[in-house]
Design goal:
- It is built from five helices and no strands.
- It is mainly alpha-helical.
- Helix 2 runs parallel beside helix 4.
- The longest helix has 22 residues.
Length: 137
């Protein structure tokens, strides 16, 4: 009987991991620009500010949740929370028409929590499913 460990969706690394990580880095840079640039250089989406925060962090957490195993969920949550807190602190210190808002951080946290819940019920390994669908994996 073969007792070698088997990779599951929660353990396997995506075949295109470098591409996924590079695109994720681009998303983080886009979010950083959108949150730290002076307000006159950022388009107003005319959406509720808190929904924008929750949506951005939901998207980032879903993205990186697709690259990490479930057992890394706590580390992912910590990194996303640190990013959200860092953005708010930077906005408060910059003096470029931005201000720190604890409610923005709470909205970030709601987006992170919602994405982690999806990952924990099985939606986290989207990169593996997409690669299989595309015939890459």
């Amino acid at each position: 009987m073969d007792r070698s460990p088997r990779l599951t969706d929660t353990d396997a690394a995506p075949a295109l991991a470098p591409l996924w990580w590079a695109l994720g880095t681009g998303l983080v840079l886009f979010i950083l620009y959108g949150t730290l640039a002076p307000v006159q250089y950022v388009p107003d989406l005319h959406v509720n500010d808190k929904l924008e925060h929750a949506g951005a962090f939901f998207g980032l957490t879903c993205w990186f949740g697709g690259l990490l195993s479930r057992r890394r969920s706590a580390a992912l949550a910590f990194c996303m929370l640190a990013l959200g807190a860092g953005i708010e602190i930077a906005q408060g210190l910059m003096g470029l028409g931005r201000d720190a808002d604890v409610h923005d951080f709470i909205a970030d946290s709601v987006g992170i929590w919602a994405a982690l819940m999806l990952a924990l019920v099985g939606w986290g390994s989207w990169t593996l499913r997409l690669e299989r669908l595309l015939g890459v994996a």
